[in-house]
Amino acid sequence: MPMKLDPITVEVIGNALSTVVEEMGRALMRASYSANIKERGDCSAAVFDTRGRLIAQAQQIPLHMGSLLGIAEAVLSRTDLSTVVEGDVFIGNDAYTGGGTHLNDIVFFEPVFAQGAIVAWVANIAHHSDFVDRGHAHIFQEGPRIPPIRLYRAGVIQQDILDFLLLNCQVPEERVSDFRAQMASNRLGVQRMQALYTRYGAATVDAASAQLLDYSERMARAGISAIPDGRYAFSHDFDTSLWPELLNLSVAIEIKGDEALFDFTGCPPQTRSGMNMVFTALQACVYFVVKTLIDPATPANAGFHRALSITAPAGSVVNATAPAAVYSRHDISQRLIDMMFAALAPVLADRVPAGSTGVTVQTVSGTNPRNGKFYVYNESMGGGMGARQRLDGLDGVHVNSTNSANIPVEALESEYPLSVDVYELVQDSGGAGQYRGGMAIRRRISPTGHQATVNLGGPLNRIPAWGLDGGAPGGLARIELGEGVKPLSARNGMLEDGQKAAAVTSGGGGFGDPRQRDRDLVRRDLREGRISEAAARDIYGLDI
């Protein structure tokens, strides 16, 4: 019979596990070399039990859960665990053999030993901004594919494997430094977990973990039970600069008692572009929706997954099969999350936001005139969050599955040979409503002292984020090119020294009738430049 612990002990150990993963994430950011990790926080950390079940995840990037779940399953199902010793560290990124969701996200996965036996696993993941000027027709064009392999054996780095990986990277000095940061994060996690097992013993920690999983399941089932039984569906066209055609995405959510079925059967086939998702990425999206709508305080572990089932046809854009490209899987993930929110809006109107921004990616690469080395500046930029019932949307933020920050202008200009000419919120980009949608971002940059390749693009260029309950849609994303710049072809173009290119992200949808917005709030928005006089007069009905 499993050991039964008192609630206080379970809570103490649960908080300790949460502290371990948060500390791992912070250590990774502080030790990393690249701006994408140390400034934007495009990384995550997690702890798994010996069966590969998630027992704690840091509150960083929700979409990273897909890669973390994937590598745990891949390693445990394909490895003879009797050959694993203390200090072994697995590395992987491949979407089809390594458990990843796209190749830039590289995972470090390491066992925790106590009294000579594996008692848990720690993992961290970081987005490596490296693979540029590559195609996206299939995954072989997107970068080096790494199945789960041992980069360290008994604490000793396998130099031949590291050399092979770095040879396939375009900024190897950055990669090896970030690998060291990931290793440091895992080492910290192992030490903290070993201290936990030393203090409480393996039986107590394992029992507490099992009870935490059960607790999360009960919370999820209780929340689902509060939703009226029924089938809730939503379909919407999706656009992205990666693919010329509009795709009609669909989701149906069936609530039966304390269980929820998410059905994506109507989604179109996978495409020869980088916007496809593998199934673990789809799982991460569903788990994010359930956790945020049911109860954000639900512990981030595999327990609440038990109340959910997901159906998606293999070979579709939401459950791609090899060799589909997956680089921009975040485009579809953001839209699907908004669609799941919209499907449940009729019964959860007080919790659901209007449509939110996508992810506009801005990538510039070239030879740095300061040191003669190749560089890659890559940033996924947020925009406006959708408004909610009684709340305006947040301005200039990442939303839903990405949740990363920006690279500050000071850090960008000091680390790259680039100049930021404009970085601002975009007037009238937030969808009008009784509660206004969040505003988009404009960032205009230019290379200094050299010629550079620029890559700009993302979703919501033709179809905006929708409003709810009479709210207007948000502003569209777009690219702005300065004089003399060659038009972008397939998202790529050249920038000469001093030429400017800007990415304008998308705004969030509004909530409610704009004419019902508080007059003082309209005047404040006008005074602060958030809306124009024309919008204040013609859309909000303000007597100017």
UniProtKB/TrEMBL annotation:
<feature type="domain" description="Hydantoinase B/oxoprolinase">
    <location>
        <begin position="6"/>
        <end position="514"/>
    </location>
</feature>
<dbReference type="GO" id="GO:0047423">
    <property type="term" value="F:N-methylhydantoinase (ATP-hydrolyzing) activity"/>
</dbReference>
<dbReference type="GO" id="GO:0017168">
    <property type="term" value="F:5-oxoprolinase (ATP-hydrolyzing) activity"/>
</dbReference>
<keyword id="KW-0614">Plasmid</keyword>
<dbReference type="InterPro" id="IPR045079">
    <property type="entry name" value="Oxoprolinase-like"/>
</dbReference>
<dbReference type="InterPro" id="IPR003692">
    <property type="entry name" value="Hydantoinase_B"/>
</dbReference>
<protein>
    <submittedName>
        <fullName>N-methylhydantoinase (ATP-hydrolyzing) B 1</fullName>
        <ecNumber>3.5.2.14</ecNumber>
    </submittedName>
</protein>
<dbReference type="GO" id="GO:0006749">
    <property type="term" value="P:glutathione metabolic process"/>
</dbReference>
<keyword id="KW-0378">Hydrolase</keyword>
<dbReference type="GO" id="GO:0005829">
    <property type="term" value="C:cytosol"/>
</dbReference>
<dbReference type="Pfam" id="PF02538">
    <property type="entry name" value="Hydantoinase_B"/>
</dbReference>
